[in-house]
Amino acid sequence: MKKNLLLLLVIAFFSVLVLAACGTSDETDNTNGGSGAEETEETSEDAPEETEEEEAASDGEVYQIGATQIVEHPSLDAAFEGFQAAIEDAGLEAEYDFQSAQNDQNNATTIANNFVADGVDLIFANSTPSAQSSLQATKDIPILFTSVTDAVESGLVESLDQPGENITGVLDLHPDSVERTVEFIDNYFEGATIGLIYSAGEANSVAQIEAVNEAVEGTSLSTTEATVGNSSEVQQATTSLVGDADVFFIITDNTVVSALETVVGVAEEQGIPLIVGEPDSVQRGGFATFGIDYHTIGYRTGEMAVEILTGEKTTADIPVEVPPSMQLFINKEAAEAQGVEWNEDWDEDAEFLETAEEE
User: Fold this and answer.
1) What pLDDT digit, counting tens, does each position of 172-193 carry?
2) Three-state DSSP class for residue 138
3) What does pLDDT average to over the chain?
4) Are residues 216 and 335 in the same domain?
5) Which residues on adjacent β-strands are paired with residue 146?
6) What is the C-alpha radius of gyration for the chain, rounded to an integer number of angstroms?
7) Extended strands (E) in the chain
8) Residues near 335 by Cβ (< 8 Å), separated by ≥ 6?
9) Acidic residues bias located where (predicted)?
10) Which one of 159, 161, 249, 322 is most buried, counting C-beta atoms within 10 A?
C-alpha cells in the first residue's frame, strides 16, 4: 500500500509540473501570436511606405526659378499663372523670384543679370524684351520664353526647329492670326482705314505691324499709324488718329496693352470699333479678336520647363512652338458701346466674352 501511495504521489507531482509547463507555453504563444504577430505585420506593411515617403522628402529638390516680365497686364499675368500651374501639376517644388521691369528695358537687363548672379536653375522670360535681356545675360542657364511674337526676327533663336543651346519657348501669335483679323475687318468694315498704335521700340510690335500692312495689300482696307514711347503717350496717340481711322486694331504691343483702357475710352466716345490682339483685351473692353489663350501658352511653356528641370531634355532638344489654335472672340457690350452694327454671322462663329469688372 505504501508503495502504491508513493507511486500515486510521484505521478501527481509530475502531472502538475507538465500542466504548469503547458500553461506557460500557451501564455507565451498567445502573447507572441496575438499582438506580437500584428505588430510584426504592421511593421512589415508600414516600413516600405515610410521609406518611400522619406525618400520622396529627401529627393524633393526645390528649384529656384527667376521669372522676368516686361510689365504687368492680364495677358502676361495669365501666361505666368499657366507656367506655375504646369510646374505644380508635375509635382515639382519651385520657388519663384518674380520681377516686373515696369516696361523699362534697362530694368529687364538688371533683372536678368541678378538672376544669373543668384544662380537660379531656370529663367522664365515673359515677353520679347525680357527674353532678349535674359539671353544677353547668360548662355548657360536655361531660358524658357513665352508671349513672344517673332523669336527669329527678335534674335532669340536661329530657327524655330533649332532654337539654340539654352533658350526655347512658345510664341503668342498664331501664324494665321493677323491675316484672319484683316480678313474679318475687310468682310465687315469694307473700305475702312485701320488705326494702328504701337511702340516702335518693341521688335514684337514692329513684326506685327509689318504683317498687318502686308495682309492689307489687295483688300479694300488701308492703314494709318501712331507710335508711342511709353504708356502715358497712348491716349494722345489714339486721339491723334480720330478722324483718320474707321477701326482701331491694337496688336499685342505691351506698352499699348498696359494702357488699353485709354484706347477703349476713345473708341467708345468716338464710336470707333476696337479690334484687339488677344481675349484678355476683349474682356477689358475690346470689341473682337482672333486670339489665343495666354494661360494655355504659359502652361505649355511650364511643361517644357519640367522636362528641362528633371533632366529629361535640354532646351536644344525642344523646338519653339506656336499656339495650337485660335478663334474669334467678341464682347457684345463693347460692340454696342462702340456703335458696331451687329452681324448675325457672329452668333455662330464667335465665342462671347463679357467685360471683366475691375478689381
Assistant:
1) 888 898 999 999 999 999 999 9
2) coil
3) 85
4) yes
5) 126
6) 34
7) 62-69, 93-100, 122-126, 143-148, 167-171, 193-199, 222-228, 247-250, 274-276, 288-291, 327-330, 351-352
8) 273, 287, 288, 342
9) 38-58
10) 249
Cα(288)–Cα(189) distance, rounded to whole angstroms?
13
Domain count, the chain: 2
> Is residue 12, in this structure, part of any structural domain at all?
no
Q: Say if residue 195's pLDDT is above 80.
A: yes
Tens-place pLDDT, residues 78-131: 999 999 999 999 999 999 999 999 989 899 999 999 999 999 999 999 999 999
Instruction: Judge whether 26 lies within some domain.
Output: no
Hey, what's the cell of 325?
489654335
Separation of first and last alpha carbons in the chain: 112
Residues 111 and 225 in one domain: no
142 and 285 fall within a common domain: no
Range in 48-57, 113-122, 131-140 the model is least confident about: 48-57
pLDDT value of position 279? 85
Same-domain pairing of 143 and 211: no
0.70 surpassed by pTM: no
**Domain limits at 208?**
176-291+326-352
Q: Are 199 and 274 members of one domain?
A: yes
